[in-house]
Amino acid sequence: MSxxxxxxxxxxxxxxxxxxxxxxxxxxxxxxxxxxxRHLAFCAPDLLDPEGWAAGDCAVVQRHCSRLHRPGSATxxxxxxxxxxxxxxxxxxxxxxxxxMGWTNRRTRDTIAKFLHAIPPVSEPSDRLQVLYExxxxxxVNKPAGVGVTPEHRWRGGSVLNWVMWHLxxxxxxPQDGRGRGGGGGQxxxxxGGRGGRRTPAPAPEPRPCHRLDLNTSGALVFAKTPEAAxxxxxxxxxxxxxxxxxxxxxxxxGESLVEGEICRVDGVQHCExxxxxxxxxxxxxxxxxxxVADSAAGGEAGSAGGGGG
Length: 310
What we know:
The chain is an alpha+beta fold. 31% of the residues lie in helices and 18% in strands. The chain is built from nine helices and 13 strands. The N and C termini lie far apart (55 Å).
């Protein structure tokens, strides 16, 4: 039996709006707008940011291709064709690359994504890194204001994570013999037939930040050294079993109070910055207890210390 016309019109009018979709310029996969940039970062970084690619990202990718894959192997050849190493024109279309390699589109896409995910963030030395605590599972550092927890781009540095990568890479470096070579450290790559290839250095562990501090906030920042430690520590932050205290200078302190509400990301900025959500917006729940510790108008006398944040 056919649907009455008024009911049909009502069902169409009440249907949820269709989110706009974009197509990846390399693999042609349909994407939501919010996931477009992240997808391209691990599929077509050269098309996402051509200027950054020419300025240094290409060199990073080429260096890791040489380190991870034997020259002449099928994967190395596919990556050389895709990204145009050595000044060759890049094959930006994954369908065309699959045809040249004799692979399926799925294998081509997965090979490129797996390789790009395997490139770790760059390690960057800094005399601003201050280690507060360290053991075999975790590392606590003092994050300075004005420096992000993670980089805006994993291959370019400029964050506390990159400093921590350098700190841990020094601890993981193989011992040096008298000829300046690792004395037994690293991994031996093998070609076909079991023949030994060149020796590559063992990868440094990639730390994971267990929580976030805003760009302009300084304080203790916890990194996990192992997946097991990351799971245990992050679950404690998520379940609010970790008490966080912040100190702030205020021109008009609100006095002792409890603030509850939702916070949203600030749009239009590259770094992560939070704000109180406006009417009709939904965000992450936050609960903060405010306590006045000292008041300059009262001669700087200290009150009851405390305070916490969600």
